[in-house]
Write a structure and sequence with these properties.
Number of helices of chain A: 9
GO molecular function, one term (chain B): carbon monoxide binding
Radius of gyration of chain B: 21 Å
Family (chain B): Belongs to the HypD family.
Distance between the termini of chain A: 51 Å
Shape of chain A: globular
Number of strands of chain A: 13
Organism (chain B): Desulfolithobacter dissulfuricans
InterPro entries (chain B): Hyd_form_HypD, HypD_1, HypD_2_sf
Strand order of the largest sheet of chain B: 2-1-7-8-9
GO biological process, one term (chain B): protein maturation
Number of helices of chain B: 16
Order of helices and strands of chain B: HEHEHHEHEHEHEHEHHEHEHEEHHHH
Helix content of chain B: 25-40%
Largest sheet of chain A: 7 strands, mixed
Distance between the termini of chain B: 31 Å
Strand content of chain B: 15-25%
Oligomer: heterodimer
Shape of chain B: globular
Largest interface: A-B, 31 and 50 residues
Chain lengths: ~325, ~350
Amino acid sequence: MNTQIVLDHGSGGLASQELIGSLFLRYLTNPHLHQLEDAAVLDGQAGRLAFSTDSYVVDPIFFPGGNIGELAVNGTINDLAMRGAKPLCLSLGLIIEEGLAMDTLEEIVRSIARACDYAGVPVVTGDTKVVPRGKADKIFINTSGIGVIRDGVEVSATQAVKDDVIILSGTLADHGITILTSREGLQVDGNLQSDTRPLHFLVQNILDQAAHAVHTMRDPTRGGLGTTLSEIAKTTGLCMEIEEKAIPVQGEVRAACELMGLDPLYLANEGKCVVFAAPEKAELILETMRATPEGRESAIIGRVTDVHPGRVVLTTISGGARLVEPLTGEPLPRIC
Amino acid sequence: MKYIDEYRSQELVRSLTERLHAKISRPVRIMEVCGTHTIAIFRHGLRRMLPEQIELISGPGCPVCVTPSGVIDAFIDLAGRKDILITTFGDMIRVPGTTGSLAQARAAGADVHIVYSPMDALELARHNPHKLVVFLAVGFETTTPTIGATVLEAARRNMDNFCIFPAAKVIPPPLRALMEDPKLQVDGLLCPGHVSVILGSRAYGFLVEEFGLACAVAGFEPTDILLAITSLVNQVQSGHPTVDNCYGRAVAPEGNRKAREIVDQVFKPVDSDWRGLGPIPASGLGLREEYGAFDITRRLEIPIVNSGEPPGCRCGEILKGICQPPDCPLFGRACSPASPIGPCMVSTEGTCAAWHRYGTLD
């Protein structure tokens, strides 16, 4: 077998079949995928279906704490979970640049398989394309997913109401700062790691406890918490009042942000969610989140009010107050 | 986080602001000359905590904002040329000239890279021997020592595919120009922290002696800024202006001699055009003759045409502290961070961007 991806691997011919057989089916083993049909046929499900898709083009493709493969699995699982859905299965589409080392691809596929096994969500259908060198950056991955929403769960950005408590499931900006420092080869003390992980276990636990009390869930990926809250504020016309001192940020992440002039509020997260819940169930939901490994550092960071309609207001550590506007453009380090 | 949390303490901030409220007895106009101060003041929500008699105005302390549009056009023109690889700090990439921005040039095929240090540009030059790698040398005293050290390293390595586009500036001359402007009535100056690390607090002595201006060098944490503002209020009210170094943990009276030596070795003062302020003698830095080979403007014919401000844009007056962002007819309407027209809206440290992002809570 080749040690590098060549255009033939995407031709649909023998090389493609060999790649699928020796790599994908070797790691992604389940009866649906093994059928190698044009579409996976799934059993009917009780409840409403949720359907989501996302594409992953991260640079670098391997970073401390993860790689593009598990990011693609966890990202779509989380998108489904944020609507209160239990993820059932995923599709996996790969666009690979000619010349990618076969070992690299194998490592990515292995980590996709590991992420799927851990989450209990299989890849049931897939596709591979190879493009000439220079027409893609190493590898792009698309994952789509289907999930099922049980009765009584109504979670959406429009459902947040006044007096809701805003709970964040853990520390901010771990993924964003890890990618930025890895991309630029910056040496930062400490142990910066991406937080990529699936959140559907945490979500199902809180829905088991208090389905009706959970109004909105979002994972603050690109654009970070600041942009996510701004979107919810705009959608609902309500005010999100948050406390800087209540927002957990790891020491090394804060230090790196200070160094680069970046605000952790706007950096990406890949394993965190923000939950809007009725105040009477907030403590119960917080305890439930803290009882799961992915929500151990959950914290109440604010409340929904009608003081500044459509805006996000941050009370700073120093006791001041300021607006939090959505991110514009990419977060860029300052000149001096 | 040690050495940061202490300077953001809510109790300390409250006690400092209470003291300010108790002390102030007349209106005091303070200019913060540094873009990082502008951002820090907004980011920590300090404006709303200060007495109403204190008016804070932002000066020309963002290097991106004061770079004339003609120079930005020249950057973009250069980026579009064959076999040129442009390296720049991130702030510069979205600034619009009259013909677009470096980001747009990159989308159209130009080879434009964001770097975190000018030394990274040298590495790019090493890996791209068939390209001429140009670093856009924009910045103030804070940035120029590293740029100087990079030129020295390029000379040591005899690199012939590395150049800088000299566009760096120094802070004292525009401060003199501002204070000579009768339209700008300022009582005190919040002197820039990072710049002062290099320059030293003594560098502002002429502002006290010639203009009777109260000066306080400030760090970037809330308590640093509040201490410096308190000092300025005291100086103004007592009628005894001085240069008070309120950032003693980083700034020495004589600054950083080694850094200045590097700058002096590589650069020489040249007249320079400032957006909003116009030409100011000896306010820019050009490469000395012996390093002329690393000056792209000497190696290639690069026309710099002063194209003026976009119609309606008041960035020039904002940079002079004559008007505030909401006074500009474009602010928040045609000009926003999503579609900036003037440089003050583009740079992360620009006054308009800060006002737009943080400043309209009331």
